[in-house]
Amino acid sequence: MDNFVVSARKYRPVTFDSVVGQKAITSTLQNAIRTNTLAQAFLFCGPRGVGKTTCARIMAKTINCMNPTSDMEACDECESCRSFNSSNSFNIYELDAASNNSVDDIRNLVDQVRIPPQLGRYKVYIIDEVHMLSQAAFNAFLKTLEEPPAYAKFILATTEKHKILPTILSRCQIFDFKRITVDDIAVHLQNIAAKEGVQAEEDALNIIAQKADGALRDALSIFDQMVSFSGRSITYKDVITNLNVLDYEYYFRMLDNVLSKDNNAILLLLNDVVENGFDIQHFIQGFSSHLRNVLLAKDERLIELMEVSRQLKQRYREQAQKCTQHFILKALDLANQCDLNFKNSSNKRLHLEICLMKMCYIGAAPQQQMPQPNVQQPQQQPQQQPQQQPQQQRRDDVTVAPKSTPVVREVRTTRLNRAGTISINAEENKKEESVVEEVWNNDFTQEQLSKAWNDFILLNQNSSPVFIAGIKRAEPCIKDKWEIQFKIDNILVIKDQNNMHQLHEFLKNCLHNNQFVLKEVIVERPKEDIPYTDKEKFERMSKQNPEIIAIKNSLGLQLDI
Running along the chain, 561 residues long, what does each successive block of 10 average in pLDDT? Predict the structure, then answer.
């Protein structure tokens, strides 16, 4: 039985042209070889599985090739290429810095640099995971990296560039490898499947490419895993089952339920997701991505931005026709807020259910309506002026306190409206101002007002102690027919809009009157002269009881102050 070789090794690129998804870097390296402008040191950095070490080996093989092609690829026929292919090349050294990160390891490497190549033009040193070198090893390597022999080339590879000393970075040409796109990975997997005689669905390979997160090596490992699971036929259903990926069908059905405002179907479908063992936070994240794809499908120019198969793109087009752009943006905002507040929620499932049901009640986009002529407006205007004029006068009034009361510093008038209902659209709140409120105009006495005020204090003294302390000595009184005046000594009391609104609502219900106006009078309480030093305390005591001085003198006592 032949030994099995994983696809990541079996189909590892051996030429620049076969490197997947790094065309800009491979072209730069080929041009540098063609023009003989190779730097003394290179730094290949980027995430895992994107081709850093592979490109380093291809470059080391190519620059030592005796008969390179016109595209600056190795010929695979000369003695240098044959020795490289059989892993017997004495001109190419690979060092794993993760396990050889001491000063002695770097000193051994520096000693080898002094020996010129026996075959070929260059001696190439590939140091993988170079960020694992110790501080002392970096310092020992610094001088050789700065002034190596002409035949020595260094290729450093790392996934964490920020851990490398700036003095090392300044001596290298830096190449940043990008994550490989889903389309490039899917196409590469399709080619490998054809070579291996494996039938693979396009959607299945697309899911594998997404799961790899830009790393081709991870995608090939998942591909081998799926071949072991499914045999010679890889289906979309097998992939999502084996990789525990939530099916796209759940997202399409969930959005259809939201559009039809079927709350029961939403709860049942979410329960199905939970019972299948999926994390509900992953569901809301996936649903957000689904909404984004629906938004992209609204415009033909943006469809190519979706990292899905062609069949799914067509389904997104069909579902996008059912949604307005306003709805999608509002739903995306709700899903994003749900994801942000997910960890802070004590009942996470209920938190997600509320978010999904809120999406059912997203209204249409607000439209600006042109003002329509109102025939009755000239007749209504004289009736509204007498009602608004006294209120305007009340706002401008200044109450002058009598001599027996504290000095009045500032007077403000507070008129609170009735609480509005909660709305998803901020624009809808403006429409509530036009709602006509039922008029309550029962007369009330000072005794009824004082009782309602004290009842509010007793009910809320535990829930809002700071606000209650501010209005406890307010002494509310009836000044005019619909004006209630109260005193406060803290401006922060009237700035507490929530509690002021609760007070207004409580008084309105108790007095059965919604026409009154709360007018607060900000007063300055007399400051208490508090003694702090021992001398001040003695003087205060002696004024209250002069016999203390007589006792002090008779006993010949001295104050220690």
Answer: 76 88 90 89 90 90 87 86 84 86 86 82 89 87 86 90 88 90 89 88 87 87 88 85 83 90 90 87 90 90 82 87 90 91 88 90 61 45 43 40 41 43 44 56 83 86 81 82 80 78 85 82 69 77 83 78 59
The reported pTM is 0.58
Exposed / middle / buried, residue 462 (Cβ in 10 Å: 0-12, 13-18, 19+): exposed
- Could you give the 3-state DSSP secondary structure of residue 360? coil
Q: Are 279 and 299 in contact (CB under 8 A)?
A: no
DSSP-assigned states of every residue in 368-420: PPPPPP-TTHHHHHHHHHHHHHHHHHHHH--PPPPTTSPPEEEEEEE-PPPPP
Structure tokens at 480: 């005019």
Question: Which residues, other chains included, contact 70 with Cβ-Cβ below 8 Å and sequence gap of 6+?
Answer: none
Q: Which structure tokens are listed for 195?
A: 């070579």
**Under DSSP, is residue 530 helix (H, G, I), strand (E, B) or coil?**
coil
Residue 459, H or E segment: helix 446-460
Residues 118, 88 contacting (CB under 8 angstroms): no
Q: Which two tokens stand for residue 456?
A: 């509010």
pLDDT for res 175: 92
For 26, the enclosing helix (H) or strand (E) is helix 23-34
pLDDT on residue 364: 61
- Determine the pLDDT at residue 393: 41
Token pair 């002695």 is found at 104
On whether the CB atoms of residues 159 and 129 are closer than 8 A, the answer is yes
8 Å CB contact between 270 and 280:
yes
Write the DSSP assignment of 174-242 as a string of letters.
EEEPPPPPHHHHHHHHHHHHHHHT-EE-HHHHHHHHHHHTT-HHHHHHHHHHHHHHHTTEE-HHHHHHH
Q: Judge whether 126 and 56 are in contact, CB under 8 Å.
A: yes
- Give, in order, the Cα–Cα distances in Å from 221 to each of 122, 165, 231, 532: 34, 33, 15, 78
Q: Which of 409, 418, 415 is nearest to 392 (CA)?
A: 415
Beta strands in 217-304 (DSSP E): 233-234
Burial class (CB in 10 A: 0-12, 13-18, 19+), 276: exposed
What are 459's two structure tokens? 């009910």
Pairwise CA distance, residues 62 & 71, whole Å: 11
pLDDT for the residue numbered 379 = 44
User: What's the full length of the chain, in residues?
Assistant: 561
The CA distance from 498 to 500, in Å, is 6
Q: For residue 155, what pLDDT is reported?
A: 92
pLDDT at 437: 58
Predicted pLDDT of residue 400 = 39
Phi then psi for residue 468, to 5 deg, are -60, -40
pLDDT in the model for residue 2? 59
pLDDT of residue 237: 85
Q: Are 561 and 533 in contact (CB under 8 A)?
A: yes
For the CA atoms of the chain, what is the radius of gyration?
40
